[in-house]
Specification:
Layout (H helix, E strand, L loop, with lengths): L8 E6 L13 H19 L4 H5 L5 E12 L8 E11 L4 E11 L4 E17 L9 E3 L12 H20 L18 H10 L14 E6 L13 H20 L2 E7 L2 E2 L9 E11 L4 E10 L9 E13 L5 E2 L9 H24 L2
Antiparallel strand pairs: 1-3, 2-5, 2-8, 2-9, 3-4, 4-5, 5-6, 7-10, 8-12, 10-11, 11-12, 12-13
Helix pairs in contact: 1-5
Length: 363
């Protein structure tokens, strides 16, 4: 039986100085964490009346597995109120899609604008063991959402989400645990790559990817977790954005802000007491933007596996801003080895594809 249409979830809070960089721009990671908290509430609430939740004594929770279409439209500043509204727009057999829209409100002037939008995919899970110290979780069927009736906008969102879901499901086995987020762009031929390398001229001024490398490590604490001692996806997203911001600053040495994030899959959980490591570096630079690869991994005291386990891998796009908020040119990228050339070549493919899509969308 389909669930009744759920009311949108709204999470709001006043943005304070510790949410921002020195220029007063609120960190993208702060917004991402707020978005994921709201999405978690909406998806978990959907499962509240389900049989799976009742059979597990109310222990069904929604786990973030993917986010996509993540866009940063406008900056949001200290002193404004961020209101994150989300609603469920699609469910498959075992997944829940939540659309999230963030608005920034200048409460003294009464001005409000959309600052961020994104889609968050969750899966409903229940514990399959009673061991409170190390529960093993299993995915259960999602409670189907009611089909939109008499709402053309909601129906268009539903159909678009369903099309994307079916395309991804049929086109690839995207559940590969260590899939590279750059999988849709490959080196078509050695000759094309050789041409790219031959046309490259080392700039007299610029910085190398190595100069932008950043490593952040953080122990997972109780405040980062749900009641089941599992870290929120927003906690990981915030750390990844922080690392990307550090790499962007190392590269530009100016005020930098997030403007976009690639689609990203979360392939492992992080639990209370785990050590999370984030590694980031610049892999491509256009004239006014940077693409930064960010990899999150974890070491767990309860796991028998040696070394780090991959959690997520994503590409963050940043721009450099001057004091009046205008976009600045970024330093040129100095490529040092074959890995740098490969990353830059793939980055150029993504950049040109995105530019083409924007031009076609504006027609």
């Amino acid at each position: 039986m389909a669930s009744k249409a759920a009311s949108p979830v709204v999470v709001s809070r006043l943005l304070l100085p510790d949410d921002a960089n020195p220029a007063g721009n609120v960190h993208g990671g702060t917004t991402l964490k707020l978005m994921e908290e709201a999405g978690h509430i909406a998806a978990t609430r959907l499962m509240s009346p389900s049989a799976a939740n009742k059979e597990s004594n109310g222990n069904c929770l929604a786990a973030l597995v993917r986010f996509e279409n993540m866009a940063f439209h406008k900056p949001i500043f200290v002193g404004e109120v961020a209101s994150c509204m989300c609603e469920i727009i699609f469910t498959s057999k075992q997944s829940i899609l939540v659309e999230v829209v963030v608005r920034g409100e200048d409460i003294s002037k009464g001005n409000t604008s959309v600052t961020n939008t994104g889609w968050l995919w969750y899966v409903p899970m229940v514990p399959s063991t009673c061991d409170a110290s190390n529960k093993i979780w299993k995915v259960v069927d999602a409670l189907p959402m009611a089909m939109p009736e008499g709402d053309n906008i909601a129906m268009r969102k539903y159909e678009k989400a369903k099309s994307i879901y079916e395309t991804r499901k049929n086109s690839s086995q995207s559940a590969a645990t260590e899939k590279d987020s750059r999988h849709t762009y490959t080196i078509a031929s050695d000759s094309e790559f050789d041409i790219f390398k031959s046309l490259y001229t080392t700039p007299t001024e610029g910085r190398t990817p190595t100069e932008s490398e950043q490593v952040l490590c953080q122990m997972v604490l109780p405040g980062d977790c749900s009641k089941e001692k599992i870290a929120f996806g927003g906690f990981i997203m915030k750390l990844m954005d922080n690392a990307a911001g550090c790499s962007a600053w190392r590269y530009c040495r100016t005020n930098v802000v997030t403007v976009a994030i690639s689609d990203m899959d979360f392939v492992s959980w992080i639990r209370l007491g785990d050590l999370c490591t984030i590694r980031s570096k610049v892999v491509f630079a256009s004239s006014k933007s940077l693409e930064i690869e960010v990899i999150a991994s974890v070491v767990s005291a309860t796991s028998e596996k040696e070394g780090d386990t991959l959690v997520a891998r994503g590409l963050f796009t940043f721009v450099s801003l001057c004091v009046d908020g205008k976009v600045l040119s970024v330093p040129k990228l100095k490529l040092e080895n074959d890995e740098d050339f490969k990353n830059a070549y793939l980055g150029e493919q993504r950049y040109e594809a995105a530019k083409k899509a924007r031009m076609e969308g504006s027609k």
